[in-house]
Write a structure and sequence with these properties.
2 domains; Outer Surface Protein A, domain 3; 3-stranded antiparallel beta sheet; 2 helices; alpha+beta; 4-stranded antiparallel beta sheet
Length: 177
């Protein structure tokens, strides 16, 4: 069993943390985020560290202990450094461009796909076939990347589609004569 919960979350100097009975609020240079607390875990700020402790020794409480610590760590990392996902488009004519608050995707369909960029997310097209999605919420960045990838997932025969940077696509052999 993982013991993630026992490690304290280090708080950088430029980040402020406030803990109430219901939620944890974290402010940093990239924004402000909050997360609701579980009644099974107590959270305290001590000497520039956030410490989570379980209320009792039940299995469900220990699971929530690690989950709360991981969520708080993601909040602190998100408002100080941020999260990024990079996508690559492989295929003839596949390209993307950002126009205001809309991402235009040309993926070989009869029409372009207009993907509205959510609030708090920044999408940059480094090249017409590479996207960089960044934001302070790990959850939202991952969901946006997954939604864009779902429009044309990588296929195993030619490797065409949208994939994460560095993702290995298992290739299959085509038809034999």
């Amino acid at each position: 069993m993982s013991r993630v919960g026992k490690y304290p979350v280090m708080v950088p100097k430029d980040v402020t943390v406030s803990v109430t009975k219901e939620k944890v609020t974290v402010k940093g240079k990239l924004g402000e985020m909050s997360f609701p607390l579980s009644h099974k875990v107590t959270v305290a700020v001590e000497d520039g560290r956030i410490v989570c402790t379980p209320v009792n020794k039940e299995k469900e409480t220990r699971a929530m202990w690690g989950t709360m610590r991981a969520q708080i760590n993601n909040l602190v990392k998100g408002v100080s450094v941020g999260f990024k996902k990079k996508l690559e488009m492989v295929g003839v004519g596949y390209k993307a461009q950002v126009q205001g608050k809309v991402l235009k995707l040309s993926l070989g369909f009869s029409h372009d796909i207009d993907f509205p960029i959510p609030e708090g997310i920044k999408i940059v097209c480094t090249t017409p076939t590479n996207l960089e999605i960044s934001g302070c919420s790990k959850l939202v960045v991952g969901q946006v990347a997954a939604k864009i990838r779902a429009y044309r997932g990588p296929e195993p025969y030619k490797g065409k589609g949208i994939k994460y940077e560095g993702e290995e696509i298992l290739r299959k052999e085509g038809k034999k004569k």
